[in-house]
Amino acid sequence: MSYLIIHTLADDSCDFPYDIEKDARGKLYCEKCYKIWEEIESVDVVVRDLDCLNPRVPFTFFTLPGLPIVHTSFLDCFQPDLLKRDLYLGRVYSAKRVLQADWFTVRARHRLIVRGTENVSLRWCEACGRPVYDTIAGCFLYPEPAGDVAYFTDETRFIARSDCVDIRRLRKMRRVAVQEIPVVDAPLDGYGVIEPKSYRSPPNPRWELPA
Ligand SMILES: [Zn+2]
């Protein structure tokens, strides 16, 4: 099985308006490591400034928490049945609460940690127990991802099975980077399988946009 990592080179990222950002902290994501609670599926957002959404750059990202925001033209590169199975799509609204119907946030049902070989650091979040992994280059996957899953996310990036996306179309998109990512037999960063030490979340984590 071969995999691709798809990331955005967009210059402008999106953020919540300040009042919602305050609400989201703790409710939507861990205050210490900024990772969305595992129990949360689709994430609806309000963007502070609509200028961050430019259809000519069809894949951009939300800063806090880290989440891809994509235009429908980007999703057309994915297979509809697999997309529906593997990805949760959330709605995107303007600050005046107008639905931006062509844009979606994306969170995969199955998430991965993209590993690397340079400047690697690994720690466990003191609040939620999840691994916080950082690297700057040399990306690889370990262990082999579940073969019956086509699309994964790692924060703002996608990892996709190469046979399940339209690579040529993706490569033509502006500010979208696509590269093969190897699956290795032995981790090149010296860490084994990275899993939460003990995941702790608030009771029934849910996310709804405040009225
Ligand atoms: Zn945390």
Question: What brief labels describe this structure?
Answer:
211 residues, alpha+beta, 5-stranded mixed β-sheet, single chain, 4-stranded antiparallel β-sheet, 4 helices, binds zinc ion
How would you describe the overall organization of this protein?
The structure is a single chain. The chain is an alpha+beta fold and 211 residues long. The chain has a domain at 12-108. Helices cover 12% and strands 27% of the residues. The chain is built from four helices and eleven strands; from the N terminus they run βαβββααββββββαβ. It has helices at residues 18-27, 72-75, 80-86, 167-171; strands at 3-8, 45-46, 59-62, 67-71, 87-93, 99-108, 121-124, 131-134, 151-154, 157-161, 176-181. A five-stranded mixed beta sheet has the order 2-5-6-4-3. Strands 9-10-1-11 form a four-stranded antiparallel beta sheet. The site of zinc ion has 8 residues, from loops.
What integer is the average pLDDT?
Answer: 96
Give the strand order of the largest sheet, numbering strands 1, 2, ... along the chain: 2-5-6-4-3
Largest sheet: 5 strands, mixed
Strand content: 25-35%
Order of helices and strands: EHEEEHHEEEEEEHE
Number of helices: 4
The distinct bound ligands, ions and cofactors come out as: zinc ion
Cα end-to-end separation? 45 Å
- What is the number of E strands? 11
The structure class reads alpha+beta
Large-scale geometry:
globular
The low-confidence runs, each spanning 5 or more residues with pLDDT under 50, are none
Cα gyration radius (Å): 17 Å
Helix % is 10-25%
